[in-house]
Write a structure and sequence with these properties.
- It is a single chain.
- This protein is an alpha/beta fold and 594 residues long.
- The protein contains 18 helices and 19 strands.
- The strands form five sheets. A five-stranded mixed beta sheet has the order 2-1-3-4-5, with helices on both faces.
- α1 links the parallel β1 and β2 (32-38).
- α11 (387-402) packs across α14.
- The N and C termini lie far apart (72 Å).
């Protein structure tokens, strides 16, 4: 007897119990697994304003932790789906589950107060019939947006959808001759709608392959969206926007959850690019062996010394900054406790997903040709930056992340870490500061020329080098359409700190700079529409739906909120990957604030 997986998927005003599900299912001779899959709890009046992107993040995390292991371990299992959730949330879970398991959809009958898979006609003489759907017979070229409207409970007004999607290139309506709240009274009816949806998707994949977006509007009972979602393959349909409806709102449909595949924007590398990447890779490996490892050995003689003491030239310098060594900076690992003293750069690795990878088994760093080539090109445009310094800062930063005595950001923990943007923002900032101050100590020993113009210039240049390294992971030679919110926060933090350091009197002192670095800014940007992709949340940079752009910060025990005249430079800076624009906008905010 095959295993049955019961999914109790609820997010409205009541939960779904195992007992009521098993009452609907009846007795079994096989094995059943009950998955209590809560997706929050909201009243019907709250649905329009729900934080759908956050719900989708939590749902994907719960799916990975709770449901996916059961599905993977039981490939022959069947699914019994019980759903009481908003339409887009049911669709999203169906997409996550996929089409590898047969399923039965159970609906809640509000009048009879029971779950059913098959029930009587909604009224005597009712006939279930789907209106014919006109599909294009020939391929159509060009970008554009496609609307799919699916109405089984109520017909969907096309005019209301145009308020959300202006000038669609194609429109498809899957609607019934007689829509009804109970039109899906049997599994055959559900599958008939799903099959018609699949025909439209097939047409999209074959005849409309240049179209880049599907906008999906559904009016149905809850189980159907789950079944529809199982048909989504993002390799074929890479962008599907779902919507939440409220007849009393304007517009009546608002974007809810976006189902999408991350687009691979890697640029084509020339032979010259790959040759330069190979040179950089070899230079970084030579530097690691001949300079970084001796440096680590030189500053880690006393195991009990706190980290801040190891980055000071002498006891007098440490005495000046010791008062700043408060938690958590007083207990951070020293560089001698990272793996860098045993690491190497893999000279044979050329193509690495996400730009780089650390392989713990071999203590080696694999660096992608595109990352190294792109970094070299960016730094060539910035006269005060340094490719070899970029290599050190990169290794210092990531070395703390991966260290068992540091952040313990192993591959298992790092996988999907984008679901926790606030956590990774804190870890990134700490690793950035740790890398910058470790680099200062390195230059005191091996690159003293970098310190001749004073600490203010040294740290401004080092920050520029570090931030250009961050940009290189995003630079594909084209204008950015969107940016991850946690990435934007990281850039804003560092351009904010750059301005504060630049404004120091004279050439700056180590104490002044440490006082700035060890105080992470609390600053946020708002006004650009947000979009959820996978488990990452983005600001859309080219949207016409933007409201007024604003900054807010919490500083000196005060909340300050402004819309400086230069704030549009933030958007321009991110779209064009130009940090100077962002520095100018932040400086305007800082001047207004002071």
């Amino acid at each position: 007897m095959e295993m049955e997986i019961i999914i109790a998927h609820y997010g409205l005003e009541r939960s779904i119990t195992r007992e009521e599900c098993e009452t609907a299912l009846g007795p079994t001779d096989g094995k059943r697994v009950f998955i209590d899959f809560s997706a929050g709890r909201a009243s019907l009046g709250e649905l329009y304003d729900l934080p759908f992107e956050n719900i989708a993040l939590a749902q994907q995390r719960k799916f990975n932790e709770l449901l996916k292991p059961v599905l993977d371990a039981n490939p022959d299992a069947v699914i019994s789906y019980f759903g009481l959730v908003p339409i887009s949330i049911g669709f999203h879970l169906g997409y996550l589950v996929g089409n590898m398991h047969p399923y039965t959809v159970y609906h809640w009958h509000h009048a009879q107060q029971k779950w059913y898979k098959d029930i009587g006609l909604p009224k005597d003489g009712y006939k279930f019939s789907i209106k014919p759907v006109a599909l294009p017979k020939e391929k159509q070229k060009g970008k554009g947006r496609v609307i799919i409207r699916i109405g089984t409970s109520f017909a969907i007004d096309p005019q209301a959808t145009y308020a959300a999607v202006v000038n669609p290139a194609n429109e498809f309506d899957i609607e019934l001759e007689s829509p009804s709240l109970d039109s899906l009274f049997c599994q055959e009816n559900i599958q008939a709608v799903v099959n018609q949806f699949q025909e439209v998707l097939n047409c999209y994949g074959s005849q409309l392959s240049d179209r880049d977006q599907i906008h999906l509007f559904i009016s149905s009972s809850v189980g159907l969206p789950f079944a529809l979602g199982t048909r989504i393959n993002t390799n074929i349909y890479p962008y599907i926007q779902t919507y939440q409806y409220d007849r009393n709102q304007n517009p009546k449909h608002r974007p809810a959850i976006l189902i999408t595949k991350e687009v691979d924007n890697k640029i084509l590398l020339t032979e010259g690019d790959r040759e330069q990447a190979e040179i950089t890779r070899s230079q970084w490996q030579e530097q690691l062996e001949s300079r970084v490892k001796p440096f680590i050995q030189a500053i880690t003689g006393s195991k009990g010394d706190p980290w801040l003491k190891t980055i000071c030239k002498d006891t007098a310098e440490y005495a000046a900054i010791e008062k700043h060594a408060l938690a958590p900076w007083d207990s951070i690992a020293t560089i001698g406790r990272t793996s860098l003293k045993d690491d190497k750069i893999d000279l044979s690795a050329k193509n690495v997903d996400d730009g780089f990878e650390y392989i713990e088994k071999t203590n080696s760093w694999a660096l992608d040709d595109g990352f190294l080539s792109g970094l070299k090109k960016r730094l060539n445009k910035c006269p005060d930056t340094d490719l070899m310094q970029a290599g050190r800062l990169f290794l210092f930063h990531e070395g703390l992340h991966y260290s068992n005595h540091g952040h313990r950001l192993t591959r298992e923990i790092a996988n999907g870490i984008g679901q926790f943007p606030k956590v990774i923002e804190e870890a990134d900032y700490q690793a950035d500061v740790w890398a910058l101050l470790t680099e200062y100590r390195y230059c005191c020993l091996f690159e003293t020329g970098k310190l001749k113009s004073g600490l203010k210039q040294f740290f401004c240049n080092a920050i520029d080098t570090a931030v250009e390294t961050m940009w290189s992971f995003m630079d594909t030679g084209t204008e950015l359409q969107m940016v991850q919110i946690r990435s934007m926060n990281r850039f804003l933090n560092w351009y904010w700190q750059w301005n504060l350091i630049e404004a120091l009197p004279g050439t700056g002192t180590l104490e002044e700079i440490i006082a700035i670095l060890l105080r992470k800014p609390v600053i946020e940007f708002a006004g650009a529409p947000m979009e959820l992709r996978g488990h990452r949340t983005f600001f859309k940079l080219n949207s016409q739906q933007a409201v007024s752009f604003q900054f807010a910060t919490f500083t000196s025990n005060r909340v300050l909120r402004f819309a400086p005249t230069t704030i549009t430079e933030i958007i321009a800076g991110f779209k064009n990957l130009k940090g100077d624009n962002i520095k100018v906008a932040l400086k305007g905010f800082q001047v207004t604030m002071s």
